Amino acid sequence: MNDILKLLEQDCTMPRDQLAAAAGKPVEEVDAAIKKLEEDQIVLGYQAIIDWDRVCPDKVTALIEVNVTPQSENGFDRIAERIYQYDEVESMYLMSGAYDLTVIISGRTLRQVAQFVGERLAPIPGVTGTATHFILKKYKEKHLVFRPQEPEEREYIFV
Amino acid sequence: MNYDKLLNQKIQGIRPSGIRKFFDILEEMTGAISLGIGEPDFVTPWHIRDAGISSLERGHTKYTSNAGMLQLRREISAYLLRRFDLRYDPAGQILVTVGGSEGIDLAMRTLLDPGDEVVVPVPSFVCYGPLAEMAGAVPVYVELQAENGFRLTPEQLRAAVTPRTKLLVLPFPSNPTGGIMERPDLEAVAEVLRETEILVLSDEIYAELTYGQRHVSMANLTDMYERTVVVNGFSKSHAMTGWRMGYVCAPRPIVAAMTKLHQFGIMSAPTTSQYAAVEAMRNGDGDIEHMREEYDSRRRYLVERLNRMGLPCFEPKGAFYVFPDIRSAGLDSETFCERFLREEKVAVIPGGAFGPGGEGFVRACYASSMRDLAEAMTRLDRFLTSLRRK
Predict the structure, then answer these.
(1) Any chain A CB within 8 A of the CB of B355?
(2) B330-345, pLDDT tens digit by residue?
(3) In Å, how far are A114, A139, A156, B70 from A104, measured between CA atoms?
(4) pTM (global) more than 0.90
(5) Which end of chain A is less crowded, N or C, counting CB atoms within 10 A of the terminal residue's CB?
(6) Alpha carbons B110 and B100: distance in angstroms, whole number
(7) B241 has a chain A CB within 8 A of its CB
(8) Contact B353/A158, CB-based, under 8 Å?
(9) What ipTM does the predicted assembly reach?
(10) Exposure string (b/e) for B343-358, b if CB count within 10 Å is 16 or more?
(11) Closest by alpha carbon to B364, among B377, B355, B378, B345?
């Protein structure tokens, strides 16, 4: 199962026959396994990794440190839920250390992000403080480097 | 100047490889897929590159000892014991060379006298015959058979041995066939060698790339150790082809003699590369596993696709090549490759380039992305269909 997950994580667009051969399993078995993984929501979805800077240079992404007061019965989960349900929130993590939640949001403009923090995030009851860090440049995400590959000029040798 | 008269007669007798013309065509093409070069598609892992860079930053830019840095030889010794159960003393039994190729050249020139015969199983990598000839010896080619899994059989060896036989080359895991020699196969060959004083040059550059079983060296056989020269290196195992890092291990008198030649011809292997190699030996086992798993996936995929399109293909057990039999296409291997390249823009190498016995086969290297391999197979299928229709 893990080998199929690893292969999907690397490239979920790989045709099933290639995936099956790579996993060393029959296509039917791989199909069934993937269906099960999707049903069990172990595989949550399939997305492309896009270098948005080259398409929309004004688009901004921010990493927001959020401090909250946990609620007595639900801990951090209830308040987290109130935050991550906003579409603007791309990713969110509960953290150890100096602050409680990392919220990653992106917006069309700087103002839009600032508005989200000021008008939506900060007023949520239980949120005690935020610190917004704008991401200036993406170097790498999910093992992919944000840099067009330079064509390599090379002469072939016989090996 | 009449250079034909001036150039060494032996070097003039060595034919240049016919493969160059394929690469000339390939270099002019756009949208071509090359499965022609036997080289990992991975970049050297970063921690290894970083170790090389750090050595430069610290100013390690001088010669090392002729045999290579002692710390590297110690690491190689520990690695060979850990991975292959081979015991070599870093002081006197290991020589660091400029790629495995230098090790092969050194071994040939150190061991061979004019008139000696060298048994070379073919198809195999192209250097053994010419290097033996340059050392004044005579290569005796033994044609391996697909039905034997491209192994060297004791019968074939016995038939090739004469009183002049000095050296047996064992190029396993094999470029280009992907064949390997397992312990019983080696035992059977050793049985023949025991009756003689024939030495063994075991080219184990692909030792880390075996699928389903660990590589066994001829030097693992107790009484073969004393007659075996093991050549290995970092190019294939650690994706370090451009660093030119290899090593050769053998009984002390052989390494001492090779070191003499190495010190006059080379001095010492590149220092930066040696520092990188130390890191590769210390912390690179995980990289090897990762790359091997990747190659294994591609290998299974390729064999399956080739079989599905009706091209008989021996299942390779090592290295990163498939060697399908293309005789059913009705073309000789060179014509097949040239037409495949021109018509479908995929480069594979004619089996004939790897010596007699390779004709009728082509070599495709699967150290390429799965996407390229898939596209190459689709084009191959189309090419075969068009040939069969005619």
Answers:
(1) no
(2) 999 999 999 999 999 9
(3) 13, 16, 45, 50
(4) yes
(5) N
(6) 15
(7) yes
(8) yes
(9) 0.81
(10) ebbbbbbbbbbbbebb
(11) B377
